[in-house]
Design goal:
Helix content: over 70%
Structural class: mainly alpha
Enzyme class: hydrolase
Shape: globular
Pfam families: BacA
Strand content: under 5%
Oligomer: single chain
GO molecular function: undecaprenyl-diphosphatase activity
Transmembrane segments: 96-114, 134-153, 159-180, 227-255, 276-298, 310-329
GO cellular component, one term: plasma membrane
Distance between the termini: 28 Å
Length: 331
């Protein structure tokens, strides 16, 4: 009886601790949702996947996927704090779940930028020169990370998927953003739109390839694919607005490939462990949160720099380090 009470208390502490990281993200866009989830987390002691856990992970995925703060890092830490994937039996399913709900974020980009995808389809049939150019850019930018990820997937999971490596990546990424901004390498705000000018289509194949090479750094959990793509684009002379939009579209390609591969490899295990409803809940919440996150980022960067994300990464790294040191989070 005493053992059960101790285990229940430990799970409760982990559930409450999980809110720290999640609320830091949610507070930017949905403070009311963050407050409601705090109450629910504190009152829940189950360790299996539940509807509220699925929704929480979906929100974290949707909010963090396209912001330069690393969705993988947030999901790995949140899953650990929620007691998911803590045994060998469900570790694979939990990892697959985290990737499966990315379909929600993928659908968000497809819906918001459907005109770009229409042009790319037309480009395949020779009816849109701009669409064909954009499609080539995305293929070129996607190739480096696709090849490296395929060759080193198991090694990356074995060596880099730990809480301390995520903390390191968060902290270094935050310092990098602040350092580049101080050095004048990052614009303080987006540039005004010019009628008849499409800055995205001004990206060259060479620039796209360099962006793709920089994106490979994001194979380290906690780095952020979005951060790598945006910084890579800015450092080769791409405008802020084009860099951000290109990161969204490149994310669509990258996430589609990663999610599809993961579902083929472990989809059966996913549904065996979590059923169908919870992954769908996570996907829906990821979609809604991603739509809000993308729209907010585009608007925010029209008047501000990336500095807020640099400070956020440093703060979340400190919070996570504190949870690791106190034992609330597994190293």
């Amino acid at each position: 009886m005493n053992t059960n009470k101790i285990q229940t208390a430990a799970v409760s502490r982990k559930a409450v601790a999980a809110t720290l990281g999640a609320l830091a993200v949610l507070a930017i866009l949905q403070p009311a949702t963050a407050a409601a989830l705090t109450v629910q987390v504190a009152s829940t002691t189950e360790t299996a996947m539940t509807a509220w856990r699925a929704a929480l992970l979906g929100i974290i995925e949707g909010v963090t996927e396209y912001l330069p703060i690393s969705s993988t890092g947030h999901l790995l830490v949140a899953s650990d704090l929620l007691g998911l994937g803590t045994t060998k039996a469900d570790q694979g399913a939990a990892d697959t779940y985290a990737i499966a709900i990315q379909f929600g974020a993928i659908l968000a980009v497809a819906g918001l930028f459907w005109k770009r995808f229409r042009d790319m389809i037309l480009g395949v049939f020779g009816k849109s020169a701009g669409g064909r150019h954009l499609l080539i850019l995305l293929i070129v930018a996607f190739a480096p990370a696709a090849v490296l990820g395929f060759l080193l997937d198991d090694k990356i999971k074995e060596v880099l998927f730990s809480s301390w490596t995520i903390v390191f990546a968060w902290f270094v990424g935050g310092l990098l953003i602040l350092g580049l901004e101080r050095a004048g390498k990052i614009p303080h705000r987006g540039e005004p739109a010019e009628p008849g000018r499409d800055r995205l289509l001004e990206i060259t194949v060479r620039q796209a390839f360099i962006i793709g090479l920089v994106q490979c750094i994001a194979l380290w959990p906690g780095t952020s694919r979005s951060l790598a793509a945006i910084l890579g684009a800015l450092l080769v002379g791409v405008s802020m607005s084009a860099a951000v939009e290109f990161s969204f579209l490149l994310g669509f390609v990258t996430l589609s490939a990663a999610s599809g591969y993961s579902m083929l490899d472990g989809g059966g295990e996913l549904f065996t462990q979590f059923g169908l409803l919870d992954p769908l809940i996570g996907l829906v919440f990821a979609f809604l949160a991603a739509v809000i996150s993308i729209k907010w980022l585009i608007t925010y960067l029209q008047e501000h720099s990336l500095a807020i994300f640099g400070w956020y990464r440093i703060v979340i790294a400190g919070i996570t380090a504190g949870l690791l040191i106190t034992g609330a989070l597994n190293a």
